[in-house]
Task: structure prediction
Amino acid sequence: MPNVKNNAAAQETRRRLIEAAGEIFAERGLHAATTKEITDRAGVNAAAINYHFRDKFELYAAVIRHALSQAPVAFLTHAADAPPPPPEDRLRAYVTNILQDFRSSSRPAWHATLIAHELVQPTAALQAVMEELIRPWVDYIEGIVRDILGPDAPRDQIIRAAMSVSSQCFLYRYKSQLTYWLYPQLLHEENLQPGIDHIVAFSLAALRGLRSQ
Amino acid sequence: MPNVKNNAAAQETRRRLIEAAGEIFAERGLHAATTKEITDRAGVNAAAINYHFRDKFELYAAVIRHALSQAPVAFLTHAADAPPPPPEDRLRAYVTNILQDFRSSSRPAWHATLIAHELVQPTAALQAVMEELIRPWVDYIEGIVRDILGPDAPRDQIIRAAMSVSSQCFLYRYKSQLTYWLYPQLLHEENLQPGIDHIVAFSLAALRGLRSQ
DNA sequence: TTAAATTTGAAACTTAAATTTGAATTATGG
DNA sequence: CCATAATTCAAATTTAAGTTTCAAATTTAA
Result:
């Protein structure tokens, strides 16, 4: 069993395993991934999984925890006694955060793919982590939408509109093979600014249109 | 090897296998699904997979083909010499088709989940089928968006706006565990009309707003 | 009705992957 | 520097799943 001593070499083995496992799990999914391929890529022995994580599933859980723990949460903040920034600014911050996240160099490319796998086929025990990390985003976008639609907007409309905004971001972030094939020019692009600008403009136009009705 | 005679009982075995395999592949994904569970649910012997489909992967391919072949393609048509219906009507037809599809009784619930798996982790050899079935939808929504945005809209804007509309539909159709958890009230709903109405209203407001800028 | 072909069933076989084992190596604290 | 604990390694074991086999049952066509 892993020891409290945690010397540098052992920590390195553990880190390499998570790194390699993240890539392979993202490529193949939990079940199609083999521990051999993981340990080969990590350059460690097969027994290291058992030693550091007990088994393949605990390794997977550790990988998910690692990926989620690195998710940036960078809301547009404001002082408690000051008025909040205009919803348009918060909307842009929301979209920017979600889209930049999956391109950021501090966040390996496999994180988004891995989470996409989880969304299609959630594994148990991770619901709690997801809730903790995703609920704040949901509340944030709902607040933005509520501010733009105005105080009289029914809750149902707020929820649906929040989903409409989020779904556009998700299509970029958890881009699938299908999207890639349909619109290669959009997903190859180096810079995300046009995508961010579009989603913000599209969503703002929609929300303002809904309000004026 | 399957015979040309295709008597009723054999056809029934084949049908039950595809049905059961569809459910199990959708629940667990291609790799996590076991042939034993499939044959158990289908109430047939393990050898039936070998006999009718050669192996697990051919069975999977048959299931995907089956699911895709049932995808309804019901564009809003018009006579060749008549003007096309207004884009607002075509937009509603597009959204309705995609959303109703996944609830339609003729199309079991597992179809959408199965295709969601394919989107996250495509298996080879099916690209062609996808292209054949999905490209028409892409062209259709792009035409709608182009008509609403007007002849001067840049191609880039048209593509992005088409993605924005489609992404909203996909969120409903390929609803994930996450969406279910975040908005149970929306996904439990019996009737899709409010969802359709929202997506149409949101998208129309957005497109008109973009045009007027 | 019968012979040939098709389909199904139960069990055995094969393969591949996960896990365990125990020895060898490396690090740590006294 | 030694003793002890932690870690790594290569090989063996176990497990689980897909596939094959062949005999029995059923269907088809003459």
Q: What stands out?
A: The first helix of chain A runs from residue 8 to 32. Residues 5, 7, 9-10, 34-36, 46-47, 49-50, 55-56 of chain A lie near DNA strand C (CB under 10 Å from a C1').
